[in-house]
Design brief:
alpha/beta; two-stranded parallel sheet; 3 helices; 7 strands
């Protein structure tokens, strides 16, 4: 069996200024970490037999992970479009904070952001998610039907702000 994998699906290239700055800071922080790992890898390699050297194997994998992330960020950052303009609208677009109410009356708030800065802990969802796609262009008091693999949910838009 080969190692070939199909390419990942195309994602949106939009990002907020804060998200872009965070990715740049991450990239800058990876280089010093990489130097530390290379030094530790060299020290582990000098200890002798590499096939049974757990430190060497661990550092080698860690270095591969760092190199992968550095390559990804170096390719991704030039492609991203920083969205600085805030639309003068009460409709849902990129960067909007949206408060939703479900059928049971539970309220939750999300922010629509780019793929690279989506974070469920901060209630930031990707523009490419099913919920965000259903919300785009909708206005306050609109009803949105969101189909997810688990269920179909009807949500009401309570507020939109930027």
């Amino acid at each position: 069996m080969g190692r070939w994998r199909p390419p990942p699906p195309e994602t949106s290239l939009y990002i907020t200024p804060a998200g872009f700055q965070a990715l740049e800071l991450e990239l800058k922080g990876l280089w010093p970490r990489r130097r530390e790992v290379v030094a530790a890898l060299s020290a582990a390699a000098a200890e002798g037999d590499r096939s049974e050297n757990a430190e060497y194997i661990y550092r080698k994998k860690e270095l591969a992970g760092l190199d992968h992330r550095i390559r990804y960020l170096q390719k991704r950052l030039p492609l991203l479009s920083i969205v600085r303009d805030v639309p003068n609208a009460d409709a849902v677009y990129f960067g909007a904070y949206v408060e939703l109410e479900d059928e049971a009356g539970n309220r939750r708030q999300y922010r629509l952001v780019g793929v690279d800065e989506a974070d469920a802990r901060q209630h930031s969802i990707s523009m490419d998610s099913p919920l965000a796609k259903a919300l785009l262009g909708k206005r306050v008091s609109d009803e949105v039907i969101v189909a997810t693999p688990q269920k179909t949910e009807t949500l009401n838009i309570c507020s939109v702000r930027y």
